[in-house]
Write a structure and sequence with these properties.
- Three copies of one chain form a homotrimer.
- In chain A, strands 2-11-10-5-4-3-6 form a seven-stranded antiparallel sheet, with no helix packed on it. A six-stranded antiparallel sheet of chain A has the order 12-17-16-15-14-13, sandwiched between helices.
- The longest helix of chain A has 22 residues, at 320-341.
- Chain A has helices at residues 24-35, 158-169, 173-176, 197-205, 210-213, 215-220, 310-315, 320-341, 362-374, and strands spanning 13-14, 40-44, 53-59, 62-68, 74-78, 93-95, 99-101, 108-110, 115-117, 136-142, 145-149, 184-193, 238-239, 268-274, 278-283, 286-296, 299-308, 354-355.
- Chain A has 377 residues and is an alpha+beta fold.
- The first copy, chain A, is built from nine helices and 18 strands.
- Chain A has two domains: 13-36 and 158-374, Naphthalene 1,2-dioxygenase Alpha Subunit, Chain A, domain 1 (Alpha-Beta Complex); 40-149, Rieske Iron-sulfur Protein (3-layer Sandwich), CATH 2.102.10.
- The first copy, chain A, is globular, with a radius of gyration of 22 Å.
- Chains A and B meet through loops of A and helix 5, helix 8 and strand 18 of B.
Chain lengths: 377, 377, 377
Amino acid sequence: MTVIANQISESLVKTLPGSAYSDPDLFAREQELIFGQMWFCAVSSAEIGKAGSFRTVQIGGESILLTRSRTGDARGFFNICRHRGAKLCTEEAGEVARSFQCPYHAWTYDLDGKLVAAPNLTKMPDIDRVEYGLRKVHVREWLGYVWVSLAERPPSFEDTVIGDVRTRLGDVESLERYGVENLQLGKRITYDVKANWKLIIENFMECYHCATIHPELTEVLPEFADGLAAQYFVGHGALFGEDIKGFTVDGSEGLDKIPGVTEGQDRRYYAVTVRPQVFLNMVPDHVIVHRMYPLAPDRTIVECDWLFLPEVVESGVDLSKSVELFHRVNQQDFEACERCQAATDSRVYADGGVLVPSEHHIAEFHNWVLDQLNRDA
Amino acid sequence: MTVIANQISESLVKTLPGSAYSDPDLFAREQELIFGQMWFCAVSSAEIGKAGSFRTVQIGGESILLTRSRTGDARGFFNICRHRGAKLCTEEAGEVARSFQCPYHAWTYDLDGKLVAAPNLTKMPDIDRVEYGLRKVHVREWLGYVWVSLAERPPSFEDTVIGDVRTRLGDVESLERYGVENLQLGKRITYDVKANWKLIIENFMECYHCATIHPELTEVLPEFADGLAAQYFVGHGALFGEDIKGFTVDGSEGLDKIPGVTEGQDRRYYAVTVRPQVFLNMVPDHVIVHRMYPLAPDRTIVECDWLFLPEVVESGVDLSKSVELFHRVNQQDFEACERCQAATDSRVYADGGVLVPSEHHIAEFHNWVLDQLNRDA
Amino acid sequence: MTVIANQISESLVKTLPGSAYSDPDLFAREQELIFGQMWFCAVSSAEIGKAGSFRTVQIGGESILLTRSRTGDARGFFNICRHRGAKLCTEEAGEVARSFQCPYHAWTYDLDGKLVAAPNLTKMPDIDRVEYGLRKVHVREWLGYVWVSLAERPPSFEDTVIGDVRTRLGDVESLERYGVENLQLGKRITYDVKANWKLIIENFMECYHCATIHPELTEVLPEFADGLAAQYFVGHGALFGEDIKGFTVDGSEGLDKIPGVTEGQDRRYYAVTVRPQVFLNMVPDHVIVHRMYPLAPDRTIVECDWLFLPEVVESGVDLSKSVELFHRVNQQDFEACERCQAATDSRVYADGGVLVPSEHHIAEFHNWVLDQLNRDA
């Protein structure tokens, strides 16, 4: 095991200042420079399963329309008519036959975003139908999800998204063996968390709190009681306890194992943070994907998916013991994050708090955030 | 017909930038420089029908008290006691015998706003009872409504209010023939619209959207289906369809025609925008008056009055088919405006949208707004 | 009687400008420089009656934890864990055995705020348990209440709190004779007032409004009908009316008289404003204590305590006629304050209002506020 944090020699390291979690101007810069630039895991590929099915999501303060073209490719657009700015789709999800028509003046766009019809358009022959098409966003599908970048020139997917996986696991193959893109949604739970998104990431990155707030999780993963998160190491998966049969709320047997999982990965829990808003959790029989949608300095929606083998989901077998374990962990974590949000405005938290040695790797996340905000926009 | 817009040669013209519809600072300047200066159509004259009857309204961010003096003249005051700032009248409407008494320390003002009594006032003989009277606003009655200007030196009523009527209709006589001040309120509906007031004006000025969202209206006024609003022209009234008997939701017979309406005006719909907040709609048997009360960048109250001949209202005849037509139009329009509000914060709407040729006259409204905001305060 | 106000010669004196009551930035400075510095009367001593009982309150924008140590001394801390900023106690009141444990990572503090335990703390031997103890606030008990100062170097309690009593009553002994610290809570009513805290102080300081809004109070204290508040004078107590038997809503007999009350103090009402947030009201048989908690420019929580002799409270005798008198006064006053709040944003109140001669002493309060805000922070 390689230790990541290089500040281990000092006993306490500073966190970000309190204002980093509460200042609306800083949040606006994060929306622009982080969520409005980086690859953002927006919806599952299955949600826009066929040509014309669509979803709208809120990314970096923008309403984004995701759909699938007739060629089967995922497409993403700003959900705004180019004529007078009316919101094109007000529904969160739906399906169109072959085009999106603005309900205000009937400007009509095909599934590739091109302007294909508008009243009196024939009288305006010099209007370029591509230039006045919907404004596109970059789209990429991976792990069965649609990733979006609102940047004109998006960062390298390989260096950022896949890079984060490689940094944590040591390689990408370890993740690929779970065949996440072939798994099927067994359960989705949405959490409305009254806390800054960075508190949620920091919480996910450390396990110093596990003994205090996660009794069920530390029962399943005894080493977590010692306070060292899987993320503290490279390529490390936390081993199930001796009497534990599966990653379930009571340690009972789980579901069918994913075929690609190796012996070394069996009976282990792996966790990866893909900045800025995704957590991947892998156990032998399922994968848990958290996606955050930051809405305000003190409010973040978290959508959590539990993915199993398709035959498991389709069999109708009871998934609740598997779901319940991390659902409780989520509830315990998000309550802790909300408890920290209040202090971020306090005069005694102006300089922030401290990280103990087992939390030192969080400082790298803080430096990463500061680097993003100091980039030239 | 004289075409107003002078940019007809170009196919697309820019709108205002998105921030013009969402920026709180700009809205504050509009409150001060537009609604807090220009003539604002506040209440109907009948609402302050006799001496001492009063109404309070919100204009330019201020609570304004309107009443009628013993001489029968309309009077307007800032609804604030000169002593310690207590709100004089908290009710929206009511009636006093001969004076307004502040409920905090009993300072008392007559119907002309003069300070006429206060505890211990006799011990303060050098207090000027006019100087410490209620702060007045300019008031003018026209068309059966009380128009108010909060400016110290109001703009010319003739040049602004009546000027807007003349610009649209070509003369004022065309309007005067409807005898609006003699009509009676048949129905009032109040709409709480989550959109900027300028979106509502823009919507009223163009008919490019009529075919898409106003099926009932285009049935009654077939030329609206072509997308050219009455306001596109000078002095033009849109002709009723051949089979249309009246300006009603189903084209059935309307009410008794207003006597002054000429043959040329018969079977026609006329519309006038009186900046900054009034729409006048004239048809042979009734007049519809919209008044907007902007409350926030993204919120506007619209009060809509349907006015008929007094004998029609008093007869108790069913007015609902006449009312229902424009009530539906209102609902359709305001929903469209709300749909546009969301985009005004978007990075891709920072430069605004575009106006097609049949909307080009809206650009003049935009220029007018910018001119008001750039005036020296 | 010595007249305090020195501007009596002029008939009208200006108040603070309207923005002083509505500007969020000014309120933030008040939170920092007034409520976050001066002695703030936070909770009653009885609420933290024994070691480990605690209360949390909002002072100067901060959550403050008040408790009692094993030595019986009141203690106050910022309610924030020094590790990662989690809120230590989320309950408003409660009791711990001997320490406060953070529910996030189990850092544990004793009743004096010292860090006494934390997971892996033994591996961090150089961490100073006092330096990483809870951040303390200064605490002082007086009149049966716990007074708190968030300042590093608090102002002199003698000069400020006691000084305000002395200025009003001429000496402190007049107050001490009521033995307030030995009285017992008979009734507490909490008011949520939609007005700036300074309007509430100004209202309490003058009686020009008494004749208008306080019929019950002026019945009991006839001189109040003349508009001169007790606070207008030094050492003056307003005399009960001739037929008045007690300080009750209908002038009927009150409860057992407090033994220390002198003959000169009998049948009189005394009032003191202890800046910035306490009102003391003394009558022969009870003492009423108002404490304000300013939450926003236009919102103040007022907690009002009615204190009687312990034997009176314990006897179970009906206190409602005593309570009802000032409860009505409170309701009448707070409604008046709310009525004034609206005007503070108005263009015609930008320069504020005026103080009549019987209100001139309020100008000293205004000057005091301005002095606090202009101090170097």
